[in-house]
Amino acid sequence: IAGITQAPTSQILAAGRRMTLRCTQDMRHNAMYWYRQDLGLGLRLIHYSNTAGTTGKGEVPDGYSVSRANTDDFPLTLASAVPSQTSVYFCASSEDRDTEAFFGQGTRLTVV
Amino acid sequence: GQNIDQPTEMTATEGAIVQINCTYQTSGFNGLFWYQQHAGEAPTFLSYNVLDGLEEKGRFSSFLSRSKGYSYLLLKELQMKDSASYLCAVRDTGGSYIPTFGRGTSLIVHP
């Protein structure tokens, strides 16, 4: 089934540890995004990529990095996790930046 | 930047009609999206408006007035499964061109 897949679905992480959240899509979409969703704050954009090989910073990029080596994969890395990064992380993709986004099922991350 | 405002929570009765409003302030409006998100699940696309007027899709309709910075999502013949959060997202011509999400409206449908 075509779609967008995130891994892991949930994770408990010790503060200070490095963690990579994986995101893969098989729809050949050009644009991909990482959001975090916190209660009362809605979805906030962390990083985005309009096409393979390019990335950009969103509203809340600090403490996160991304890469886009190919069309399908868009991993998000937390270099040194902190408790404030406890959140639900959603990866999304769209055909291009003008069209609707399709979301993965999310990764629930708890930093302790 | 953008400022997007939605009510935090609404309740409605099964079978009724509910209107969820979204107001926004943006320097260069370029489209508005509505998404539905059930608890514990991913958001899913409902509608997109870029021109003024009403777009109808079955039980759901979305309206846009660019001059007023205003949109609404209209849900008819409410069903229990419509209990969810409804997210308004506005795209601006400035910056990354990527839509910014409002905080969402939690809709509770009761029998």
Could you characterize what this model shows?
- Chain A is mostly beta strands.
- In chain A, 0% of the residues lie in helices and 48% in strands.
- Chain A is built from no helices and eleven strands.
- In chain A, strands 2, 4, 5, 6, 9, 10 and 11 form a seven-stranded mixed sheet that branches. Chain A has a four-stranded antiparallel sheet with strand order 1-3-8-7, with no helix packed on it.
- The radius of gyration of chain A is 13 Å and the shape is globular.
- The termini of chain A are far apart.
- The mean pLDDT of chain A is 96.
- Chain B contains no helices and eleven strands.
- Chain B has strands at residues 2-5, 9-13, 18-26, 29-37, 44-49, 53-57, 60-65, 70-75, 84-92, 100-101, 105-110.
- In chain B, strands 2, 4, 5, 9, 10 and 11 form a six-stranded mixed sheet that branches. In chain B, strands 1-3-8-7-6 form a five-stranded antiparallel sheet, with no helix packed on it.
- With 111 residues, chain B is mainly β.
- In chain B, 0% of the residues lie in helices and 60% in strands.
- Chain A binds chain B through residues 33, 35, 40-45, 48, 56, 58-59, 90, 97-98, 100-106, and chain B through 31, 33, 41-45, 48, 87, 89, 96-104.
